[in-house]
Amino acid sequence: MVDDPIETPEKTYGRFGRLYRGLTTIDFVGRKKTWFTVSIVIIVLGIGSLAIRGFNLGIDFKGGSSWEVKSAHTSIANVTNSVDRAGLVNPTVEVLGGTTYQITADLNSLSIDQQAKVTTSVIDALAKVASVAPNQVSTSSVGPSWGGQITNRALEALIVFFIAVVGYISIRFEPKMAVAAFIAMVHDLLVTVGIYSVFGFQITPDTVIAILTILGYSLYDTVVVFDRVRDNSGTVLKSGDMTYSEMVNLSMNQTLARSINTSLVAILPVFSVLVVGAYILGATTLQNYGLALFVGLMSGAYSSIFIAAPLLAVMKEREPRFIELAKRSASRSDHRIFSPASAALLAGQGAQRQQRATSSSNATTSATNRAIQARARKQKRR
Amino acid sequence: MAQQVGSRRSLTVSLILTIVIAFGSLAATLSLGWGPKLGLDLAGGLSVVYKPVGNATSANMREVVTVLTNRVNGLGVSGAKVNLQGKNVVVSVPGVKDAQTVLKAVGQTAQLLFRPVLCQVTQAKKTVPFHGIWPACGAQYALTAQNLAVTPNNSVQGYGSNTTILPDPKYAKHSANSSSNDDPSKSVILPVLGQPGVYYLLGPAQMTGQSIGKALAQQTQLGAWVVNYTLTKTGSPLWDSVAKANFHQQLAIELDGVVQSAPLIQPSQSAFTSFGGSGEISGLFTEAGAKQLALAMQFGSLPVRLLALTTQTVSPSLGHSSLVAGLGAGLVGLALVLLYTILYYRALGLVIVLGLAVTAALLWAIISALGHTAFAPSFDLAGVTGLIVSIGITVDSYIVYFERLKDEARAGRSVRTSVDRGFRSAWRTVLAADTVSLLAAVLLYIIAVGSVRGFAFFLGLSTLMDVFITWYFTRPLVILLGRRDSSSTSALSMAAGLYSGAHGE
Question: Which of B82, B208, B217, B418 is deepest in the core (most CB within 10 A)?
C-alpha cells in the first residue's frame, strides 16, 4: 500500500522524472526480505564457487615471472615459439589491448642464477620477435611469498579500518548504525570476492587495493544516508506520527536522488578506466583496478540503500520506544510512505507560518499553502 | 561549525582568494617547469622489493638501505630511491634505460673474497686511474713467507715475524681499484678497513664467502675479541688447500672493495695442519670490529641476507602508453561526469565544472610541488586511480549540497534562505563522509605496502582538498549566486536547476 499525500503528479512523470522531482515512494524497509534474499543468493553463489573453484590468482600470489612487449606486427604463435626456444616451460601468452603481448611463466623452481639466465634470454627473444630494443621489454618477477605479504598487510589494514570505522560511527552517530554499516561492508566484500571467483577474474595486488577502496567508498555512501536518518530522527521522529521504519523510508527516498547521482558520478570515471584505459589502450594495471572498482561500487551503492538502512530499521524497531510508536501507528491502520516532496511540504508549513509572521507574503502563495495544509491534514486523519 | 555562514564581503574575499591561490599556484608550478614525479610504471624503470631473511633489527635494515643506496648511486643513475617499507627494502630506479644492468649490480649479493696479500703499497694523494694488470711487487717489498719469516715462539702473540717490510712505492701514481672495478680473477689494490692510508696489492681470489658457514664474534678467556667461523662441507677442503698455499703468509678477507682483515695463517704453528671445518681469526680486534668482521663473513656487506620478493622492470614506452591510458581514461570519465551534472543541475552544474577546475589546478600544483620533495610517493598508476576515484567523492559533496537545496526549494523556501540552511546540513554530511574516506586513506598509507601507499596518499590528498574547496569555494559561490539570483527566471539561473525539481512548477 503506497499512499502519498500528493497524488496527482505521480502519474504524469516517468521513474526518472519522479526521482528528479522528489516524488519517489519506494518502500525500502517493507520490502527488506526481497533485498536481503537477492544479496544472500549472490553471496551464497559466490561462496559456493569459492569453495569449488577457488580464486584465479595472478603471479603476484603464486610467484612467477612475466614479460611484456608492445609490437604491432607479430602473432601469439610467433611469440610462443620464440619464448619456447628461449627456454620457457609452459608459458602463457596473452594479447592485451591489441598490441601488447604478455608472457607469464613460473621460474621459481630454478636456481637464482638460472632464473636470471632464462629471464635475459627471453628478453632477447622477445625483442627479436617484436623487432624492438631489449630495453623495450618490461619484466616482472615475483617470489612466492610476495603476494602473501601484500595480502597480510591488506588484511591488517582491513581489520584496523573496521575497528576505527565502527568506533567513529558509534561516536558520531550511534552503535546500531555502526553495526548496520559494518554488515553492509562485509556484504560488499563477500559480493566482490564471490563475483571474482564466479567469473574467474584474476586476483592481483591491485585487486586487493581496489577492494579496500570499495569498502571505504561503500562506507562513505552509507554515512551520507545515515546522516540523513539522524537528521530526520531529530525532527520528523519527534512529532511522533511516523514510525522508525517510515522515517527510514522517508530518509531513503530523500537521499535516493543523491545516492543514484553519486553512484553514477563515481561509476562513470571507473567505467571509463575500464573501457578506455584497459580495453582500448591496453594498460593491465588499470584493468585490474577498474574491474574490481566497478563491481564493488555497484555493490557498495546497493548495500547502503538496500542493506544498511533496512537493517538499521530492523534493529531500531526492537527498541521499546519504537515498538510503542509502531503500535500506535498500527492502530491508525495505514502504512504511509512520504515522498521527499510531500515531506518537504509538510515540514515547510512550519517555516512558512514563520515567514508569514515576519513578512507579508503574497496572497497566492498563502492560498496554495492553505490548500496543501488542508490536504495534508485530511491525509493524517484518514 | 557552519553557524555563521558569512557576510557578503567575507564570502567574496574567500571565493576570490581561493581562485587566485589555485590558479596562481598552478601558473607558478607551470612556469617553474615543475611536473609530478612520475612513478616507474609511468616513466619506465626498475623496482625491486627485498625482504630480510630471518630476524633483522631496524638498525640492520637502516644499514642495508645505506649499502644499497651506495651501490645504486655508484652506478651513476639519477633519481634512484632506496627506502624502507616496514622491514622490506624497496629499490626503485625510474627512467632507467638499461634496467637489466642496474638490476644485476644492485641485486648482486656482495662477494666476500679471500685473496693472498702480495705486498703493501704506497698511494699518492693525486692519482690516475689504472687500466690493465698490476705489475708484480718488488722482491724486497713482497710479503712472501720467506720475507715475513714467521717463527712460532712463547710470547703472548705466539709468534715473531719480520715487521720491517716497507710498502712498494712503484704503484704510487695510480689510484686503487674501486668496488665496481673489483674483478675477483685479477690482482687489485685495495684499502684496509680502519687503517687509513694502508693499501695492499692482492692476488686473484682463491675462495669466496660461499665456503663460510657461520661466523661469530667471541671473547677468549683472556678477554680478547676473536672471530670463530665454520666452513661448509665443500668449503672445508677448499679452505685447507688455500690456507696451506698461504701458510705463514697473510690472507686478506675482502668485501665490496675493502680489506676487512688480513690475518697470518697459523703463525703460532711450525707446520700446516688441517683446520677441520672451523677456525679462529685473532688479532687486535675491538668488540665492534670483531662483530663487523663476523657479519661480513657470514652475510656479505649486508648485515642480513636479502631475498628479492618482486622485481619489476617497465620499458619507457610501456610506461608512456600507461600514462596516456590513465590520463585518457580520467579525462573521458571527467567529461562524462560534467556532462551529466550540467544536464541534471543546469546552472549549478556549471558550479561543479568551475569547482573541479579549481580543485584540479590546486591538486596539480600540489602534486608537482611535492614531486620536488623527498616526502611524497611518486605519481604512479595506482595514484592516478586514486585521483580518478576521488572525482566521485569530490562531485558528491556538490550533489549532497544541491539535493539539500532542492529539498529546501520543495519546502517552499526561497533560494536566498535555502542556500544558507542547505549548506549547514550539507556541510555536516560532507564532513562526516570525508572523515571516513580520510580515515581509510590514512590507515592504508600507514599499514599497506607497495603501490597501495601511493594510492592512499593521493586519495587522502584529494579528500582533504574536497573539504577545503567545499568550505572556501563552493559555499561562497553558491551563497552569493543564491542571493543575487532569487528573482531571475532565465534558464541558466540557479532556480532553473532547483525549482524544476520542486513540485508545482
Answer: B418
